[in-house]
Structure formats: structure tokens, C-alpha cells
Design brief:
Chain lengths: 272, 509
């Protein structure tokens, strides 16, 4: 495969695998309890005991990073799932449904698209209690219109194909047409969209946590760690570097992988 | 065009020179928040008080030495039975040029006492039953009960004197430009940015103030505020975060004015069943290692409190009772068992994400209380929501970071008194003990100092026995200023929040 020949893609794949692995087994390899306060080791730099140093409570930064990945990944995965299911359904209705309903759905989608995501998220989180479940729902809802747009345009292309006509000619019901003929053929742009959404969701969750509206302390999350570390630039400059580096690398890797996937799945690009 | 360039340059240079000359007497003051209001009768928090104390003066105020300083009243007499106070006004004028008369004093106090008004200290001042003005320069207050603490309440920034005509005109207008008799007159309020005040040449203290203009600039983010001082954008900041004190002290351009005034503690909602039991509240006082809070949330700056938060030198302070508690987890567990919670319970702790020391105190408490089985769920909304929840007693317990409003021992009433208003900003909701109420009433009405000492000693015993509030530490409340600023004073103890008063003495080189 062409994909594997590009070193950037390979490295990105490695990072993504590592991130998923750490999210799964992080608690097993974390050297300390991420919530354990050590009042005698506040704001320390790297040492043998604390590989990446400690935060303002004397908690181990490495352990907090290893644990902090979990809410981030959980929120990203859950919200992408919600966005994918909801958005695809809406998109297919928007292309394949009755014209009046389709038009209505797509106008609503357009309205939602016109709001900046962080603003919507701020509003929604302001009304609900923050936490993994509510964050996932909020971020998922925010990305539904993006999926809906992609799904609608892909469906519009597919429904004119002969195999869809054939299903119609055989008298298939709408659900069967969607399940057998449409969905499988619009899957590849949706997969690409999903990778982009995961990266965007990670950023959005981190942004909210940075602002103090995401994961509730003392449980760690990367965005929240960056937000706190910002205040300790003088005392412990590396504190802000570690979570920022983790976040930047993860988002970059997922985006590169998403791009590679799009190149791979898009027949027009593949022919070049 | 070419010929215009030198001209333009010269003009630019001249305007720079002009602004530099002006800058010599202009001070930029970095506030920790934008005041919610400048209405003189409302306690708006430290930031708002700082501005109010530039614009207004009361009959008396707390001076920089911590004592009551005669201001618009040049002297006053308290009757021996403490039921009548006579104020003699000096020749002072308001910013509109009109003289300060007894009619203005009467109107200002009546506005505070108005049951339909919003005055924060109406309860405390409502002991005034009659205001007489025998002549334009004399005011006689008659009290319904004897009170030694009334003069202290009259010294608060919420008891300042404003013109009677202004009150009449602006009764229902919360956005009216304030007029006072203080050292600076109000010029403008640019929402979201700053409040500007200008020297009042007719101020009654000759030669004061020294500054021509003060810009009170709002910096709600603590890191931005510190950086603004370091870069010279502002000359003074309030609420220096504990974590930055050390680095600011090292900076040769900056002075840090440190003061331990406010305390950190816990208020308990006594309608939440476990917290209705004194044993549980005492267990928490024993369970919390004070140094964990001091070292984590306050970067090591603070002094532990092991009793009731009465500063040394204040009435009611007793070294023997100051160390009533100690860090003893076993004893705490015993008390929990005695209260019927051997396995602990779950509770919701309200704090705020807006002030990092509040949030960090909550995180430290959560970890300390886990050791005696209390599973703490943190509720960390923004400050305004936190205050709203506190006003509705919508919490199980909440982080308390405050101080006594006055230096007289009657400050304790605000924290411990029951009475008809059982949910207040600073008390433990629904706590109402007849004996404590009686002692506080007696203490307020007793003139004899030795007798008073005895009453407050009894009060402290009862307060320790019932522990309606727990205290953990005195925190640093620091200001920091650039080296070229002199005369600003971080006022002692509880008065640190009223340090804005010393702007009349402040100079800039």
C-alpha cells in the first residue's frame, strides 16, 4: 500500500496506536496515583521519582498525563459516535427523504453550522453539569451538522446510480435501500469525516477543560492541565510543555492519518 | 508630502512629551474584577470598595493605622451608656462644590435604613432609631439599644455620605455617576475596561491627594494582572496570587505589600443531615492537615488556624483557646463514629473555578477528608454562580474565604448570629443557637471593656463546642506595586480589603 510508504503517516499511525494503548492500560503503567497530593514536592522539575516533575499539588505530572488521556479519548470517541450516527441519519434524510422534509432538515443543519463550535459548547455546558457524559453529548451534537453535510452530498451522488434504481425497480422499501445500497457506498467519506471529527472533538474538549468548563478537577485532563500550568510558567516552565506536547502530537497524528485515509479512499486521488 | 513629514514627527514627539509629563501623576491600578456596582450602600467586593474609597468618605473611616479616623466628622462623642452618638462635621465639600451638611448625613443614613433599599449593612445600622440635626454641622444619632460597634459600621465604605440632592435625583438610577466628598471625583466608567477618577482640588485634607488621575483597570485573570504589573502597564495590583509572590519579590522594580487578614474555612449547611451534628464539624477540624492547604493552594504562604479565627490583639483572642484543635485523624474518626457515620458519607463542596485559591483549597480538602471517609464531590462554577448558590444555601458545605467586616468584636455576629435571616453570605445556613445569639447581643451592648472580654471568652467556648464554622488558615492578601509608587498601604488585619482608602496618600515618581 502507498500509505505505509510515507514516514509521516507511519509515525502518525504509531502515535495513534500508542495513544489508544495508553488510554487502555495507562492506569497500569502510571508510576503514581494521579490524585495523590504531596505537599512537600510542589512544582518540582523532572527527577527520578517524578519523571516529568510535579504540579502545584505535588501530584505526578506523568501519571496525570497517562490518566488524563482517558476522559479526552472517551469524550472524543463518544461524541464522534453520536455525531456520526445522528449526522449520517440526518444527511440521508436530507438527500433521500421527501423534498419538504429534506429541505427543512438541511436548513436546520445550515443554521447550526453557522455558529462557532466553541460558542455553542460554552452555552450548552453552561446549562448542564460538566462531566464525560454531558460533554460527549454536547460535542456530539455540535458535530452532527458537519456529518450531515458530508452524508447528504455523498447520498445525492449515490442515489442516481443504477444499483439504487435497481433496488427501487425490485420494489425495495426505503430502509432496505438505505441499508443495502446507500450506506455502504457513502462510507468512505464518512470514515474520513470521523477521523477529522475525533481530532476536532479532542481540541474542543481540551478547550472547554482549559476554560474550566470540562472535566471537573481533581480528575486530570490534558486541556485542564494546560489551563492550570499556564499560571505556573515562572515556577515550573516544563509543566505546561508536557500536556501541550501530548495534545499537539495526538491531534496532528490523527489529522495526518485522516488525510492519508482520504487520499487512499478517494478514487480520483488514487489514480494519480 | 516630504515637507509634511518633519512636521508630523514634531507633533508626534510633542504629544509623547505631553503624555509623559502627564503620566508623572497618573496611576494605573489593576483590580481583580470589574465592580458589579458603585452604589455606595452595597458591599461590592474588594475591587468595588477600592474605587468607592477613592470617591467617598464617611463620617469616619478606618485609617491606615487600623484605627477609626475622623473624616467628614472632625470629632464625635459617644454617651456613657452607648445609646447616643454626636458627630460634629468639618468644613468639607462634595465634588459638585456644595458643602457637606447634617442634612446630607441624615439623607445618606436614611437611605441605608430604608427597608425597601438594598443596603448591605442595613441590619447592623438599623439599631439607629432617631437622627437629629440640631444645626447644619451637628448630627445626633439615638440608638434603640446600646451599641459599641456602631461607629465601626459607620466607618465602612458602605456608610459613606453622599449629597441629599444627589439621592433625591438618583434614587432609582443604579447607573448614576457617583458624587462624594472623597479625594477623587468620578470621571468615567468604560465597561469591561476601567474606571477613571480625577483629583478633587477641594478635598478637605489640604494638599491631598497627590495624584492627578487614577485609572482603575479591570484584570479578572490573575496571570494577566501579574504580567501587567511586571511589564509596567499598571503601577499597583491587588490580589497577588500566592504563587507569584516569590517571583515578584525578586523583581528589583517591584515591591510586594504582604498582609495576613482573610481566613480560609468552611461553612456548613446545617440542613444537610451529617452537618447538623457538631461532632462531624469538629471531626473535619481535626482531620484536615492545615499545611496541605497552605503548601498546595497557597504556595506555603499562610498561618494555620486551630480554633476560632480571631486575630491576635482582637477582642476574644485567647492563646489558650487558639490551639483548641490539632491534626489528629484518629480523633476525627472517633468523632465520626460518635456522630453515627463510621463509614463516612458523601457531600457536595461548593467553591469556584474563578479564584484558583478557592478551587485549590477545595481540591486539598477533598483529599484530606477522604481520609475520614467523607467522599467530596466538587462543585466549581464561576464566582457569580457560586455567590448565587450561597445566597440560596444550595450547597452541603462551601469554602469560606473572607474576613471580619469591622475590627470591633461584633464582626462575629455576621458569622455566628442566628436571628431571622438564616442564610447569609458568611454564616453556616440555618445555624441558630440561642446562647450564641444572647452572648453576641450582650457583647454588642456592653460598654465596659473587661466585662466585654468576659462575654467574648464565653462566646469562643460556645463556638468551639458547637463548631458551626471550621477555620484552617490565615491567608496572605498582598498588593504589589512598582518601585516608584509610595504611600499606598496594605491596611492591617481585617482592614486589608479597605486599603483603597490609602490612595489619598499615594504618590508616584
Amino acid at each position: 500500500m502507498r500509505m505505509s510508504r510515507r514516514p509521516g503517516v507511519l509515525a502518525s499511525a504509531a502515535i495513534v496506536v500508542l495513544v489508544i494503548l495508553v488510554a487502555l492500560i495507562g492506569p497500569l503503567i502510571a508510576p503514581h496515583n494521579p490524585l495523590l497530593i504531596n505537599q512537600n514536592a510542589v512544582n518540582q522539575g523532572s527527577s527520578a521519582t517524578y519523571l516529568l516533575g510535579t504540579d502545584e499539588f505535588g501530584r505526578d505530572i506523568l501519571s496525570r498525563l497517562l490518566y488524563g488521556i482517558r476522559p479526552t479519548i472517551a469524550v472524543a470517541a463518544l461524541s464522534t459516535l453520536i455525531a456520526a450516527i445522528g449526522g449520517t441519519a440526518l444527511g440521508i434524510v436530507g438527500a433521500y427523504g421527501r423534498p419538504a422534509i429534506a429541505a427543512f432538515v438541511m436548513r436546520v443543519v445550515d443554521i447550526m453550522l453557522s455558529f462557532p463550535p466553541i460558542l455553542l459548547a460554552l452555552l450548552a455546558v453552561g446549562f448542564w453539569q460538566s462531566g464525560i457524559a454531558s460533554l460527549s453529548v454536547v460535542i456530539g451534537l455540535i458535530f452532527i451538522p458537519h456529518f450531515a453535510r458530508v452524508a447528504q452530498s455523498a447520498t445525492l451522488q449515490v442515489i442516481r446510480q443504477e444499483y439504487v434504481e435497481a433496488e427501487h425497480a425490485m420494489g425495495a422499501r426505503a430502509m432496505r435501500v438505505v441499508g443495502r445500497a446507500i450506506l455502504p457506498n457513502i462510507l468512505s467519506p464518512l470514515v474520513v469525516q470521523a477521523t477529522l471529527t475525533i481530532a476536532a472533538a479532542i481540541l474542543l474538549e481540551s478547550g472547554l477543560s482549559f476554560l474550566g468548563l470540562g472535566i471537573i478537577p481533581p480528575d486530570p485532563s490534558w486541556g485542564q492541565m494546560i489551563g492550570t500550568a499556564r499560571g505556573y510558567l515562572n515556577q515550573n516552565p516544563m509543566y505546561v510543555v508536557w500536556p501541550s506536547l501530548c495534545l499537539a502530537l495526538t491531534v496532528l497524528a490523527i489529522n495526518i492519518l485522516g488525510d492519508a485515509l482520504r487520499d487512499h479512499l478517494d478514487p480520483r486521488l488514487r489514480q494519480e | 508630502m516630504k515637507r509634511l513629514l518633519p512636521l508630523a514627527l514634531a507633533t508626534a514627539l510633542m504629544s509623547v512629551a505631553a503624555s509623559m509629563a502627564q503620566a508623572a501623576d497618573t496611576l494605573y491600578f489593576g483590580l481583580s474584577a470589574e465592580p458589579s456596582t458603585l452604589d455606595s450602600v452595597i458591599q461590592p467586593g474588594t475591587a468595588g470598595r477600592t474605587v468607592k474609597l477613592a470617591i467617598h468618605r464617611g463620617l469616619v473611616n478606618y485609617g491606615v493605622d487600623g484605627k477609626i479616623s475622623p473624616e467628614l466628622a472632625e470629632r464625635y462623642e459617644i454617651s456613657p451608656d452607648a445609646t447616643q452618638i454626636t458627630f460634629h462635621l468639618r468644613d468639607a465639600t462634595f465634588h459638585d462644590g456644595s458643602p457637606v451638611t447634617s442634612a446630607d448625613v441624615k439623607a445618606s443614613l436614611e437611605r441605608i435604613l430604608d427597608p425597601a433599599g438594598k443596603a448591605s449593612f442595613r441590619n447592623e445600622l438599623s439599631i439607629i432609631s432617631k437622627i437629629d440635626t440640631p444645626d447644619a454641622k451637628t448630627v445626633v444619632l439615638t440608638l434603640s439599644k446600646p451599641s459599641v460597634s456602631l461607629v465601626d459600621y459607620l466607618a465602612l465604605p458602605e456608610s459613606v455620605i453622599v449629597p441629599a440632592a444627589w439621592i433625591k435625583q438618583n434614587a432609582g438610577n443604579p447607573n448614576a455617576s457617583p458624587i462624594g466628598a472623597g479625594p477623587f471625583k468620578f470621571v468615567s466608567w468604560t465597561r469591561g475596561r476601567e474606571i477613571l477618577v480625577q483629583k478633587y482640588a477641594g478635598f478637605y485634607k489640604k494638599g491631598k491627594p497627590y495624584l492627578d488621575e487614577v485609572h482603575y483597570v479591570f484584570y479578572p485573570d490573575e496571570n494577566t494582572r501579574v504580567n501587567a504589573l511586571k511589564s509596567g502597564d499598571v503601577d499597583i495590583i491587588e490580589y497577588v496570587p500566592a504563587k507569584d509572590v516569590a517571583s515578584l519579590k525578586k523583581d528589583p522594580e517591584i515591591k510586594v505589600l504582604q498582609m495576613q487578614g482573610p481566613f480560609m474555612g468552611l461553612q456548613f449547611n446545617t440542613k444537610f443531615e451529617p452537618f447538623s451534628k457538631p461532632e462531624v464539624r469538629q471531626a473535619i477540624a481535626y482531620a484536615v492537615d492545615r499545611s496541605v492547604i497552605i503548601n498546595t493552594a497557597f504556595n506555603g504562604l499562610g498561618t494555620p488556624i486551630w480554633g476560632v479565627a480571631i486575630p491576635e490583639g482582637y477582642m476574644g483572642y485567647d492563646p489558650a483557646k487558639a490551639n483548641f484543635y490539632k491534626h489528629d485523624v484518629e480523633k476525627a474518626k472517633e468523632l465520626m463514629k460518635k456522630a453515627g457515620y463510621p463509614d463516612g458519607f458523601e457531600a457536595r463542596l461548593l467553591a469556584t473555578s474563578q479564584y484558583s485559591f478557592h478551587q485549590n483549597t477545595a481540591v486539598a480538602l477533598q483529599s484530606e477528608l477522604a481520609k475520614i471517609g467523607i467522599k467530596v464531590k466538587l462543585d466549581l462554577p464561576d464566582w457569580a454562580t457560586r455567590m448565587g448558590k450561597a445566597a440560596a444555601a444550595d450547597y452541603d458545605f462551601t469554602v469560606l474565604g473572607s474576613l471580619g467586616e469591622i475590627t470591633d468584636a461584633d464582626w462575629l455576629s455576621n458569622y455566628y448570629y442566628g436571628g431571622d435571616k438564616l442564610v447569609r453570605t458568611n454564616n453556616s445556613p440555618y445555624f441558630n443557637d440561642a446562647k450564641i445569639n444572647e452572648l453576641l447581643d450582650k457583647g454588642r451592648a456592653t460598654v465596659d471593656k473587661a466585662e466585654r472580654e468576659k462575654i467574648y471568652a464565653q462566646f469562643v467556648d460556645r463556638a468551639l463546642e458547637l463548631a458551626p464554622l471550621d477555620y484552617f488558615m490565615w491567608r496572605d492578601q498582598s498588593y504589589a506595586e512598582r518601585k516608584n509608587v509610595t504611600g499606598f498601604t496594605n491596611m492591617p488585619g481585617f482592614l486589608t480589603f479597605q486599603s483603597g482608602y490609602s490612595i489619598e496618600d499615594t504618590k508616584i515618581k
